[in-house]
Specification:
Length: 406
């Protein structure tokens, strides 16, 4: 089994390739590796379901994870649980494939991978809800010994879960586990750029600085692979999940629907720049509600309404009967509590400029300077498995590993 360091650059997308440090690690990967600038993300463009698709080769219709959070219409935003645990995913993942082949894996902030028995070392992607203790929750959801060892060695790098310090800390954990244990699969999720864009805008100075930090972290990890016995043949694989777009207007869909159409039989769930509509009870023909929503398009900030048939073609999760795409500059909110205001976000549908993501493979035997044509996000999982000498039996995507190796 060929070893892999899989790094997710959250919110890195096609335009960022023009903003890279010319002498940095990512520019080197473009010169010496195989890459694609047009990986088509899933609908909606949300971090958790996308990362599940990456490691399963399946779309939300099969994985069962179609949003960051389960539908919780009567729970305040700050108290809503997320899809944290591996048990939410209905199909096998790359982590199980590694374990079944006799390998070991490490998961650092990888979404929807907590309490995964196939993972040897887990620093969990989880946060405390009101009344919960952050440290105790992390220990329950991850690997206690690995977490405590990391705190002992690298606590000075972290300031709670604030960025960019959390991504520095996560990179140090990955570096350390590779040097000490050489896992067959190390999966690392870096959130720095996504956080910067949410708070300061898509192409802000702060976002550009975050790209520079990501580049530096990738360079450090490349050196670790080069310097560590047992990792000489390992591949560095970079992925990204979505871009972002700036926000000018927030629409609370639930409040707006109650004001404009009292008794409307659907409840919204915001995906940021899109929203799902779930039935309150039985709705014999949800499509008949589309003209009613269309009649309030401007007030609701809607650019397009997806019928259930369209959602099926997009391989969306079951449950919602309709969906809405936000107009340019609009973000949907269904929070029952006052919501923080962000400068940019995602969650959009196909055709948005932010749906073109990045994929790259670097290492021995990889075609140098080769740009792959566009392909769907579901191809990433089987392609990584193929490069490792594994298979993902439930995957719907295509194994493109033959295009990557010489």
């Amino acid at each position: 089994m060929r070893k892999v360091l899989l790094v997710s650059l959250d919110a890195f997308f096609e335009p960022d390739l023009e903003r890279l440090p010319p002498d940095g690690a990512l520019a080197r990967i473009l010169r010496e590796g195989t890459w694609c600038r047009k990986v088509k993300t899933i609908f909606p463009a949300l971090t958790y379901p996308i990362h599940v698709t990456m490691v399963t080769g399946c779309e939300p219709e099969d994985t069962g994870v179609g949003q960051n959070q389960p539908f919780q219409p009567d729970t305040p935003k700050e108290s809503r649980r997320w899809y944290w645990e591996r048990e939410h995913i209905r199909v096998p993942t790359l982590f199980e494939a590694v374990r079944e082949a006799g390998g070991r894996s490490c998961s650092i902030l990888w979404p929807v991978n907590c309490k995964n028995r196939a993972v040897n070392w887990c620093f969990p992607e989880v946060h405390p809800l009101p009344g919960e203790n952050a440290a105790l929750k992390a220990l329950r959801y991850g690997t206690p010994r690995f977490i405590l060892q990391g705190e002992k060695r690298f606590r000075h790098l972290r300031r709670g879960i604030k960025e960019p310090w959390l991504s520095d800390y996560a990179t140090a954990l990955a570096d350390d586990i590779i040097r000490r244990k050489q896992p067959e699969l190390t999966a690392l999720h870096l959130i720095d750029l996504d956080d910067a864009r949410h708070h300061t805008g898509t192409f802000s100075k702060e976002a550009n600085e975050a790209i520079g930090r990501l580049d530096k972290r990738i360079g450090e990890l490349m050196k670790t692979l080069d310097d560590t016995p047992g990792m000489e043949e390992a591949l560095l694989i970079l992925v990204s999940d979505h871009g972002q777009a700036d926000i000018e207007r927030t629409v609370n869909l639930r409040e707006s629907l109650e004001r404009l159409m009292p008794g409307f039989p659907l409840l919204p769930q915001s995906n940021g720049m899109s929203a799902y509509f779930f039935p309150k009870g039985e709705v014999p023909d949800p499509d008949r509600l589309i003209p009613l929503l269309e009649s309030h398009r401007e007030e609701l900030g809607i650019s397009h309404l997806y019928s259930r048939e369209e959602l099926n073609r997009l391989h969306a999760v079951s449950g919602p009967v309709l969906a809405a795409e936000a107009a340019e500059g609009v973000v949907f909110s269904d929070s029952l509590a006052p919501e923080k205001r962000e400068k940019a976000t995602h969650g959009f549908g196909p055709g948005h400029p932010g749906d073109l993501c990045f994929f790259a493979v670097y290492g021995k035997g990889v075609r140098q300077g080769y740009e792959m044509p566009s392909f769907p996000m579901r191809d990433i999982g089987p392609t990584i498995a193929g490069l490792m000498g594994l298979t993902l039996p439930a995957a719907k995507g295509k194994d493109r590993s033959g295009e990557i190796t010489e």
